[in-house]
Design a protein that fits this description.
heterodimer; A: Rossmann fold; 8 helices; 40% helix; 21% strand; B: alpha+beta; Beta-Lactamase; five-stranded antiparallel sheet; five-stranded mixed sheet; 11 helices; 15 strands; 49% helix; rod-shaped
Amino acid sequence: MRVLVVEDYLPLQRAVAKSLREAGFGVDVTGDGEEGLWYAVANDYDVIVLDLMLLNLDGLTVLKRLRAQGRASHVLITTAKDTVADRVRGLDCGADDYLVKPFALEELMARVRALARRAYCKKNPCLKVGDLRVETATQQVWRGREAIALTPREYALLEYLAMRAGETVSRTDIWEHVYEFTSEADSNVVDVYIAYLRRKLERPRKPPLIHTLRGRGYRLGAPA
Amino acid sequence: MTGSLKSRLLLLTVAGMTLVLIVFALAMNAAVDQSLTGGFDAALATTARTLAAEVEQKDGKVKASFDEEDVDLSAFKRAKRPEYFQLWSEDGTVLARSPSLGSADLPRAAASPDAPGFEALALPDGRPGRAATLVFVPKVEDEDHRGPSPAPVQRATLVVARETADIDAKRTGFRWLLAGAAAGTILLTVLVAALVVRQGLRPLDRLAAEIAAVREERLDTAIPVGGMPREMVPIVQRLNDLLCRLEEAFRRERAFTADAAHELRTPLAGIRATLEVTLSRVRKPEEYQNALRESLEIVDHMQAIASDLLTLARLEGGQVPLRPEPVPLRQEIERLWRPLARTAEARAVRFEVRLPADLAAAADRELVALVVSNLLANAAEYADSGGRIEVSGCADDGKAALVFSNTGCRLSAEDVRHVFERFWRGDAARAAGVHCGLGLALVQRAVAILGGEVSAEVTPDGVFTVRLTLPPAAPPPPCESKHP
């Protein structure tokens, strides 16, 4: 899942980005409203964490312009403005959620996860594909009754595939949404991680989970 | 006088009415008394004259022969509640008595011969009564009507007495009637006055209801003047003015609290997120050290905000005792620059002070230090690397005028209008992420308390200038260069 954090207070920006990265999200950061808008329009973020008081362009304007351009990324506003009027204005400008500072990081993470699920029309925090179970809240993965240990990168890739279970997912999609891979110079890295996942998930005498669709990408589980 | 306006009005009305009634009753009583007594006396005098007409004199002798055919003497004879008369000759000899008197005497009062005299007395049988005393000249019996009478003319004194029970009863009855009517009137007055007072004070009740309906969160809701009696309009208007001022003060207070909360929330969120993310898993010692260092920096920032807020609150609340003394401005500026010099030098910012050495302000040293240190810190923070900070000053029109300027300002002329507002920060300030936007608000407040003026401006080439005047310490040195 790919998240954009637009926050001009640097200590907060660093802490939130770090927390999201450690939870397996691909994270871009900026403290500038104009830059934030540019990022948000240029990329297909699953969730945008948006502060309201920003440099150059305030958060509400960023949000309005983003929506005007037809971007459907889920937006979570984080701000110190806490009156009902402020919250209503934020939501009416097209935000999906509103969190007042100071917030518990745990709550911010939970809200970002919830918005990410919504981006794929998933209500259940537990994603099931056949006998594969992905607990998004705790980032645990089970195959039947067997717990499977994954590295953060492997988990991020599997979660994205599970969110779109039954669909064909192109390498470009994976590239854009599981941002951690962009740090790798080798574009082959997606295939490498798919191979890692297969080794950890597939079991003999059980139907295969990850299907390769030549020239099109990958699919988790049976076609939808 | 305290207490209820209603009871006070009621009491005064009833007391006034009672006084009027008492005076009226006394006058009525006196008039009725006079009328009753007058009528009684007139009747008594008539009886006396009727009797006197029966008295004659002949040859110097007075003779009374009351002929039953001429006068009705029955009242003087009856056993029950009789009337009395007694006749004396001029020398005091009793010539006649009414049968009712027996051997008793009536008091013979002196009276003028022109008019009968009247007095109250106790009748011989003890009843209260009144007597008429008539001194008269009995008619002379002169049969031949010729020649003058040889004997001298005699006078006689006749006293007629009659009981006053009738008029006493009438008088008592009238007094009771008067008292009853007065009591009834007072009672009615109480009722009517209570009603009138309540009706009259109804606008006050309405005003009270209007005031009670004023909510502290909507103090500027004006109380309607329409329909109020003319006397109450100024009160309501003053009240509305007061509410307006209160609302303004409350609004400022609310805005300040909201601003302060807002400004403290962001660093608080930063410190919280930093600590939470660090604690979320086991980390290397350097990571803990970094997190703690970062948290400490945020705490410093918050402490500075809290301290500035407190100072500003004290300044705005007028809680700062002023101890004016001559403050040598040049020394003060150089002293306060020292802690900032190292950082400025590291960024190659030049600092120049062009100030007469003896320029001084008569002001509170601590407030002057607050103003100067905030302006210097502001300049040091926003001056561009390799830029310039200048402080100049002179005596201007009897006041000490100081000019602080720094290069590298990215504010627009429109922005500059807001620099003295609490918590306002230009984008450039926010990018630095450390300044909390109270410094110049503090400067403005402190300068106002010192009795000076402050203004800010920016030139298109990015020179930000703050000009301020402070009260001078005599004698001011001449101005060398105005606005360098």
